[in-house]
């Protein structure tokens, strides 16, 4: 069985000036006469009990996934944290504080965040952490869980507030990595190690959702019209080249004429075809061209 009088051999913990005295190299407390009297009375009273009930009533068990800090007469009684095992507790003078060192999670409640372009969004997330230094977690802060949650909310608003909404959607992995680094650095004096941060939900107000939906639909329609116009432009260029070719080659026009007659005649319909000689069509075309060229001269007169 271990006793809480055992001294550890861990190196002194460094910190700022406020924590330097608290986390300085452990020195065995010096008790006064009255304190020694209380300790002697507690120890004697403990072991004066029957051997059967004394070990059961005056021991504490620290599990492997826990660390403990023992305060004797209000003072830290050892260097570093006590690991898993059984320890004697002297009533009235010993106070054991246990800390779970397993990985834990903290939910970041949904909160409103104003993005760089002034857009209001609702964001929530999860922070995964574990206690890396139980001594700091007990001596350095009163409630490290609540403090880490509030710090995560603050850092989340700070990081997202510097980015636009489209950047938040596109750079999600970079954002959570930045949050993890900021939180890990800020919680290090408390003995907390932040393993990762996740953004679980990202919501927009209903009015903004509808506005963005209308904008996306208008953008899709505009792209469709551009594609249609580009297709018509290419088709017009092809038709123009074909018309120029037929105009320069009389045989091409006659061949196209015969193909049209054949196509119409093969269909089951009641259309009556009255073919005209291609020479007549050519004469009519030349007459139309001459009239169009003569019209400006008449107007000038």
Parts with pLDDT < 50 across at least 5 consecutive residues = 1-15, 17-24
Strand content: 15-25%
CATH top level label of the largest domain: Alpha Beta
Tally of individual domains: 3
Count of distinct strands: 9
Distance between the termini: 127 Å
Mean pLDDT: 76
Q: What coarse outline follows from CA principal-axis ratios?
A: rod-shaped
Look at the helices and sheets and give the structural class.
alpha+beta
Given the structure, what is the number of helices? 10
Radius of gyration: 44 Å
Sequence of strands across the biggest β-sheet? 1-5-2
Helix content: 40-55%
- Looking at the structure, the CATH topology of the largest domain is Tetrahydropterin Synthase, Chain A
> What is the helix/strand order?
EHHHEEEEEEEHHHHEHHH
Task: Just name the CATH architecture of the largest domain.
Answer: 2-Layer Sandwich
CATH 4th-level superfamily of the largest domain:
Band 7 domain
**Main beta sheet strand tally, sense and closure:** 3 strands, mixed
Domain Band: 57-216
Pfam families: Band_7
Family: Belongs to the band 7/mec-2 family.
Protein name: Band 7 domain-containing protein
